[in-house]
User: Fold this.
Amino acid sequence: IVALQIDYQFEATGKDTQAEQGMTVEQALGRLDQKYNSMLPDGNILVECIEFEYVPMPIQGELNRYTLLPAWRFSLVHTYHEVGKENAAGLVAVNRKSSVVFHAITGAELISDSGNA
Assistant:
């Protein structure tokens, strides 16, 4: 674990008793490769950072209760070109940062930020 930041204290309510084998970083990179090879995005995608973390996911129907899921987070920079505002004939490079999070056991992509504050 590179870092663990907890903005509030979690209360331990139970423990999962069944151990499962997780994805290696190479397998997680394979999932990222599959995702972007199926989309064929314009420009270049740079993996800026890879982190293993635990993502708190709300338990449906429970107020203020979460399950901590092990996850691989990829911080990405997508560089592409678009038409400039001042000069319509010229292209301007645009860098857009984002992240992709995969469940470290199942390999499913997690939507960890719904855009709500």
Remarks:
- The radius of gyration is 18 Å.
